User: Fold these one by one.
Assistant:
Number 1:
Amino acid sequence: MKETQPRLEIGMLLYPGLTLLDLIGPQTVFSWFSNIHLVWKTTDLIFTDTGIGIQPTSTFETCPRDLDVVFAPGGFGQQAIMDDPEVLAFLADRGSRARYVTSVCSGSLLLGAAGLLKGYKATSHWSAREALRMFEAEPVDARVVVDRNRITGGGVTAGIDFGLVLLAKLRGNEAAKLTQLAMEYDPDPPFDAGSPKSAGPAIVEQAMAVMAAEMGKLAR
Amino acid sequence: MKETQPRLEIGMLLYPGLTLLDLIGPQTVFSWFSNIHLVWKTTDLIFTDTGIGIQPTSTFETCPRDLDVVFAPGGFGQQAIMDDPEVLAFLADRGSRARYVTSVCSGSLLLGAAGLLKGYKATSHWSAREALRMFEAEPVDARVVVDRNRITGGGVTAGIDFGLVLLAKLRGNEAAKLTQLAMEYDPDPPFDAGSPKSAGPAIVEQAMAVMAAEMGKLAR
């Protein structure tokens, strides 16, 4: 695979309490074809929702103005920045010019809060999907939703599928396939419990309780 | 889900040039039930194979002596530490007492170099699997290989399947299912190209070339 096109410029929002796998799934998919900018207010270490510290590479000021992709991950920390004017201004500004405006998991609520999903179909983590209506987006129960240049993924691990769908659009099916092979993405879940329907109501209730407790811990 | 058992103690090796998704897949799976120790020689920031900086939480000295799980991720940086006496001594020591000795991707070669896979069936990234024979391990073409208390996963994304298999052993199927649901792990790859067989020889050749180039970049 000869890389004859310029590298993609991808701006990925960081924030305290993000779910790291929301970010690292698509970041890994894009990495061979992209300059990836991990963006926050400062370049101080960010602590994610399970306590892992990662290093931003850009600030809202230094991130390139014109991006191929602007991306928002989800996570328990998402709620705390839903009315943060700096975050929303960054997303609205880069989103107004980016080729693709994207998210995984509850990151779509951040896009919504920035006014970027009004009149668009979108998805989110299953537990957060209906909240998209607050931003005049139309929730869709699907792993990856493409509506014009808005591409949103479902919860956490959906970021891998999302990334491959978007990479295929940007660099072609061959690039996406070789990336899928390199990542050995030939999934084989040991249980059939990855959606509320397959998991059933008892497991859904337990998951909601654990997620609420985890969110509570982060708030302390 | 009431957490009535003590949290699992999980030691996950970090090193420069590791593949971050190898680590973050299982780390996310384990996170609700575990104290996770990200271990390296120092607690200075580690730069992974795509340049993302993450923060160790423990050193080889401060990591708990008795672990439920010792884990080695893979990545282009694996080769550079294959004869590092500190790394191998850490893995051999913790591995001698851990309930489970585990890896994802080319991390199994590190376990092998530490003498932990002699006489065991194991797997690795598809491109590295045959190299397990150097350490008297028996390579198996499977996504997750369980041989007594050695559990090894295939390449990169196999870490999610690996994590769920191991969590089910440690905390039961219910815990694994609610984690799978919370992570919305209901995969839907856009292509059938996640294994050498499904991708076909042309894509395999391209992937090998890109991986070699990426490894070369890291060495510079």
Number 2:
Amino acid sequence: MTVHEIIALHPNPTTIDPATFSRFVDECLDCAASCTSCADDCLAEPDVQELIRCIRLDLDCADTCETARRVLTRQTAPDLNFVRALVEACSVACASCRDECERHAAHHEHCRLCAEVCQRCKEACDDLLAAL
Amino acid sequence: MTVHEIIALHPNPTTIDPATFSRFVDECLDCAASCTSCADDCLAEPDVQELIRCIRLDLDCADTCETARRVLTRQTAPDLNFVRALVEACSVACASCRDECERHAAHHEHCRLCAEVCQRCKEACDDLLAAL
Amino acid sequence: MTVHEIIALHPNPTTIDPATFSRFVDECLDCAASCTSCADDCLAEPDVQELIRCIRLDLDCADTCETARRVLTRQTAPDLNFVRALVEACSVACASCRDECERHAAHHEHCRLCAEVCQRCKEACDDLLAAL
Amino acid sequence: MTVHEIIALHPNPTTIDPATFSRFVDECLDCAASCTSCADDCLAEPDVQELIRCIRLDLDCADTCETARRVLTRQTAPDLNFVRALVEACSVACASCRDECERHAAHHEHCRLCAEVCQRCKEACDDLLAAL
């Protein structure tokens, strides 16, 4: 994706390890999009009544990953205290959505896959926090 | 605003004190919109070079307040650990943006007003955290 | 709300009639927040199966009103062709969500109220288009 | 990315040609993220005064691509009139941002790359419109 080249061209780029940083951006993009899609798949399932909490946490996780990705993408004059608090919240959102998706993984392949992408995004958040 | 009536009609509404909850929603809406507008006012100022960090933190604060407001508005089956982490991040975003806006308050009335709305939103976050 | 004062302090403000402009911002804020809340109320209703399309169009309308409000709030060097296309899309989103909410108005007061706010936002979009 | 697998698992998937649909999702994700990053790169450039309109249109394009990608990802009971209006607005946003980025392409490599991703996203919008 072109976004990584544009991020690397910042006049005063982040000192975070590039691989850790790129993985965070990639996982947030995939997790946000996957959660939006999983919520929509759930909404169309015959057993939607069982998937209410999954839909809700998918929507939360999508919004949070999108905001975290936007904020981290901005390399100009960041406030690291805020960045840290936001990535921590994002890690919790991913863990929460992963746990709920796992409960439906046996019946819904989209939930199984969404749990996996949430877990990868949570790890990317935690690795970024360790690098901040 | 109609949103408060729709929130109150949830089949299984939040047990948070309604005044604290409504104020949080109102302040997040005003703070997100105000920060979007302050960033844009700054962008058009002749001394935009001095306002770079203000623009950046305005954009962060707008995104975070919007996500926090969306998540809190959802009363169906929330994960309170995540809600708490997100409102904490929102409080830090507001404090950070307030501090930077205050540095420009003497020269730019929009920054002075934006610092005020950030401070009110930070207080609304902190009061909500105490009520969770 | 403070946002209106901050909008008015732009160094090079829009020439759109201030009342038309302010009403657009207010209605977009209320409509976006109301649709987020109506989707969540629907998700918790015992007859959620009947409300699938309502939830979906609520989510679409919330996202679109938020983007339209952000774009219009930016008064610095706009592209009016794009502004026009986006406000037209927002008007269609509001009409679409209003029609679906009205179908459930007799059974769900939150849908009745959401249809009303969508109608008001659609009118605010159309009035803004006439003023552009 | 996992999102494409989750989209394909929808109980009642879109009848749009899968390659056209996937490309639209991919280009919207890259364009939204690239525009967020280009705005931030511009903000840190010594000649930020020359890049004001570029920053503004980057922010517009990022918001619009994100909303368009969210809406199209939802395959449950769509309103095609609205989908069409939104993708048209997204195409205009991309063209507008591309034109402005191209004006700075000779001096700023991130603007040159951003113009390219905007052009690709515009083409993906137009191809999707032809397939709707």
